[in-house]
Amino acid sequence: MPARSAKTSASQSSPSASASRSRGAPKTADPPTRRATPPGPMPAAIARHAPPTVSSTPASAKTPEVALPSSATSFTDSLDRVAMAATARFTGNVSPAAVALAWADWAMHAATAPGHQLNVFKAFAAIDKPTSSHRAKAGGPPVADRRFRDPLWDQLPFAWWRERFLRTEDFVDTMTGEIPGVDRHHRDVVRFMARQWLDMFSPSNFWYLNPEVISAVRDTQGQNLVNGAQRWWSDLHDMAAGNAPGAGPEACKAFCVGHDIAATPGKVVYRNAYFELLQYAPPQTQTQTQTWREPILIVPSWLLKYYILDLEAQHSLVRYLVAQGHNVFMMSWHNAGPTARGRGLDDYLNAGLLTALREVRRLTDNAPVHACGYCLGGTLLAIAAAALARETPEGSAPGSGDASGGGNGRRAERDMLASVTLLAAQSDFSEPGELGLFIDASQVAYLEAMMWRQGFISGEQLAGTFQLLNSRDLIWSRLMHDYLLGKPAQTTDFTVWNADTTRIPARLHSECLRELYLNNALATGTLKVGGLPVALADIRVPMFVVATERDHISPWRSVYKMHLLYNGDLTFALVSGGHNVGVVCEPGHPTSHHRVATRAAGAAYRDADEWFTATPARPSSWWPAWQAWLLAQGSGRSIATDWPPANSLCDAPGAYVLER
Questions:
Q1: CA distance 292 to 363
Q2: What stretches of 532-602 show up as alpha helix (H) in DSSP?
Q3: Which site in 177, 413, 502, 566 is 20 to 30 Å from 616, CA atoms measured?
Q4: Among 336, 425, 316, which Cα is nearest to 380's?
Q5: What start-end ranges are recorded for coiled-coil regions in this protein (predicted)?
């Protein structure tokens, strides 16, 4: 585990700042909008985007609730929702109808496919095929299967058990494979469920079949099993208290939000009911005028706390950018409660991202902004850029040119945005990977019924889904490491962040599932903002897109589809690691690598596999490559700004990130 950074403690400027320094602060009511300084004139290009009531009325007071039925059908509709919500409580929010349809589709087609049956029979017969010890050692497990990496698995009889299990996996894959007529989504659901059941019986999960555990029992006289039992009991206590296993209050003391993580010095310079805007201090924080490069606004996902990008000092992308001389701003989303059930995608766009963009420009002399979005925050940023790109220059008719290089309504975008960066963010959701297994019309209806009852979906309810998607590493490998081998718990900055879950308003989550995943409205040009459709092809500012090789949430080939939707200069980087670890990869990391290449506007399209083959891997982190790209897209303009900002609200990390 890397050494922890020195604790950072800034002086508190107000009682609210002092309160924000203790983790677990009570949930606050929706606050009114507050600015650090009196507002200047709003740029005309985005005046139309700023809701006039945001600054005075909490959003929960003016947004409608999620899909409340009309008076004519309210009773029957509510009755259906109550029944579905009750069912969802007993099924783990999984639709039994969706599961039954998938299995029925597969079973009925498999029963009438003799060719498929023959292939299944051959795969079944191969399970007991004799394997020599040499072949077992040479074959080994698949590269991605971490359960059998230890060399002890190459010895008999363990190699025989391993090979038999791997051949059983091949049999299950053949049985649940392609069958003419089976819906692809149904096939994937059946295969996923079959593999989950099979993984339960992996020899690595049983101490008497696992050579690593047997060796540990021999070396420790069984103490590893005693330690594992203690870990299991401790995890039960954590879950009973509503905490993630291994992430109780005692374990998290070593990483305090605002001191050890989320500790880059800064100020909260704006707050409304949706987010706080953090501005980070330059390396020298004495009171003086600082000269900055063009500002960077980072838009995190509302699925997680923002400080995934500001962990310990060596893992902090924010701290790295500040050290390079950038004026960095970060949005910290409000942790929504039941009263925020009516906040939707338009609200998070207008009162959220576009308002943050306006405030950043106001604080930086209306400089164009390098906007960066992570995960769904990146999807929201792509929507915002497309909406800005369609705007008509003030004082000119649609389609007329203007001297700033922006005919056809491009001035609003070019004035506000210097570039767009998307980190592990999808724009085409036609192939969302294994996450799509949990998204169909029936499943979404059950989730909506559950959210209708409580007004939001919580991080704990989403965590189980994400663990299942990567169950080998997040469930079964943990079982062996923690309970069978009895390894001591290692609390890291990632562990604490992962346990610090959020709540998502019901309407926002429902609209994302239906509009983005089910309808793929953003990629098809049917998503509407302000009553008008937005198209990613309208964006003209340069774009940098990052994907990760082992991403099970935003698969890299899905992220790569931005090449089909955006026509401008696009730099695409594929980095090692998964959805989070791949993005948070500091310079000098010994095992990381990345591929990066630029497609010029108007160049021919290359498919993902061709791009991968033609683009060589480079060692170390992608951060320096991105930072150099940012400098190349900037105008070179230096911006003088006073630090600290006048009348800031409180010290970073603010109050919203501390709400549990």
A1: 12
A2: 556-559, 562-565
A3: 566
A4: 425
A5: none
